[in-house]
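User: Sequence in, structure out. Go.
Assistant: Echoing your sequence, followed by the structure tokens.
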Amino acid sequence: MGKLSGKVALITGSGRGIGRALALKLAGDGASLVISDLDEAPAEATAKEIRDGGGKAVTCVGNIAAADFGDRFIKTGLDAFGGLDIIVNNAGYTLDSVIQKMTDDQFQTMLDVHLIAPFRILRAAAEPIRLFAKKEAAEGKEIFRKVVNVSSMSGTNGNAGQVNYSSAKSALVGMTKTMSKEWGRYKVNVNCVAFGFIQTRLTTSYDDPASKIVIEGKEVQAGVPGAALSALPMMVPLGRAGTPDEAAGGIYLFCTPESNYVSGQVLLVGGGIST
């Protein structure tokens, strides 16, 4: 029996990288998982790994920016496991450019992925959470639920070439603080983790095939220019990029009972970078 036994956790972008590492952590503590990814293969691979280890997992595949994704995502958790205890808005990517070269579509796409998609997911979760909380209060129970929004130090500190991404991630901090106030009465802890330099396909070199992401048939260039990538570790006080498992650890803190009296907070996970 783990500390999350009986809990249902939904994580976007959990077929790979940080989301996958977090899914495995939560499953190891007894949670049932809804694994979501843009592509079916990585989502099913993560779910299978959890099931092979004796855990419970289902998948919800698709583009989080689709208008119906939020409703479908929440419904998957309710239909499969009958609960809704942990929501992690983790999925995303970058579309970098300096402002004079950035198109309206580049800017809007980052808002859709990093801000509108989490909004739709939380909106879809609102009524089920209210009903669960009302029933539990009537029974004299105090049961805490968790929402963790994944931002970035580009959102908290700004980053040249990422006005679209930084703006969306900054707005996600505002969403976090607002929802912590709206949902406090339902015993929902709403917090945010802002990552620095973490080893994911968003921080690989442009030359790495992994930096190319295909979204609905369109290839998107993520990653970092080689010269910038070599300089990044020197900016980190701990001297290196964080691993996906280390990054997932920051989110994990907000998913556990130890954070039941922590809400509306932003945790920087950047190896010591603070400004």
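User: And one key feature?
Assistant: Strands lie at 8-11, 32-37, 57-61, 86-89, 145-152, 188-195, 212-215, 218-221, 266-269.
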